[in-house]
Every structure is written in structure tokens, then in C-alpha cells.
Amino acid sequence: MKKNIFVTVLTAIILGFCALAYAEEEHSPYVRVGLGTIRPNNTDKYSSKKNDGYFFSAGIGNKLEKSQGLDFRTEFEILHTKQDYTLKMPYFLETEGTASLIGGLGNLYMDFNLQTFLTPFLCLGIGIGHLTSTEVNANQETETTISGTLYQLGVGVKASFSKNLDTYIAASSVRLPESDSYFGGKIVHYSFGIIYSF
Q1: What are all long-range contacts of 166-175, with beta carbons under 8 Å and residues at least 24 apart?
Q2: Complete domains list, the chain, with CATH
């Protein structure tokens, strides 16, 4: 019950800011792409060999300038992650696997305008994700898929080099649907990207 209320409220807040951004006469549409690495949060009962994976993200959004000190951005994001891993099972058995995630999120960014070329930001997001885990054990391949709600919390800094072009670095935690996969329900990704405003 509490989870459903939280999802409903967060979704309403993000959709509200999206509607406000598109209703404003002075809004700035933009596109964003980012690449980076992910680190998994392994919460299963077996020890594992953690291999860093890759992270890709692309988004389209609008910037809404509301005050001198705080600006807002609303964005629709597509993300994809993939990672190989090894689980050490009981009795000296090992399982090789690959886990990948594809998802779509609605994000709300808060840009803290410091009146310099550097702008710290905070990101809150909610969406839907599809997780696929493929494991090979004793020459047998097992595939597990699960879909569910994604939550995102991120922080970062963007740097403005021109009126239309920004670069950024960010760290985000994405909460995944519960499953027995190597991700253990959450991943952390570190990324570098560019933002082009029209």
C-alpha cells in the first residue's frame, strides 16, 4: 500500500512538471546522450566475481527556468546496461552469466544555478524496466526475465561551454525489479555525456 502511494505521488510530481515545462512559452528543448560504467549491488547468498559493465542512456527533455537559484528539467530517458558475471556456487561450482536491462524513465532534474559555468544537479526518476539474466551452468543455459517499476536517484555536475552545448558527469542509483539475478535489485552507474539545447 505504501509503495503504491509513493509511486503514485512521485509519478504525479514528474508528470506535473512535464506539463508545466511544455506549457511555458520560454522553455528550452534538448537532447542528451551518456555513456559510462556500472557497478552492481550483489545481495545474493553466494560470493561472486564482479565485472564492470557498460551503461548507455539517451533522453529528450525541456528546461524550465523558474528562478535565479533553481532551474528544472523534465526528461524522458531510455537506458540500457549489460554485464558479465561469475557466481561461485556451493561445492566449488561456478555459474557464468550475463545480465542486461532496458528501461524507460520519466526524470525530474533540479539544477542549482550558481551563476558559473558549473551547475550541480539532482535527478529523480520513475519508469518501467525489463531485466534479462542468462546463466550457463554445466553446459545448460537458463534465462530469467522480469519486468517492473524502476526508480532512479542521481547527482552530477554539468559544465556549459556554449549557449547550446553542455557536458556532464553523473552518478546514479537505479532500483531494479526484485529478482535472483546478479544485480541484486540495484545498480550504480557512473557516466559522462553531452546535452544539446535547441
Answers
A1: 166/194, 166/195, 166/197, 167/192, 167/193, 167/194, 167/195, 168/34, 168/121, 168/192, 168/193, 168/194, 168/195, 170/34, 170/121, 170/123, 172/123, 174/79, 174/101, 174/103, 174/129, 174/150, 175/150, 175/151
A2: 2-197 (2.40.160.20)
Residues 6+ apart with CB under 8 A from 3: none
Residue from 15, 21, 126 nearest 71 by CA: 21
Q: What CA–CA distance (Å, rounded) separates 34 from 1?
A: 35
DSSP letter, residue 180? S
* Residues 36, 83: Cα–Cα separation, whole Å: 12
pLDDT digits (tens, 9 = 90+) for 159-185: 998 889 999 999 998 887 665 444 556
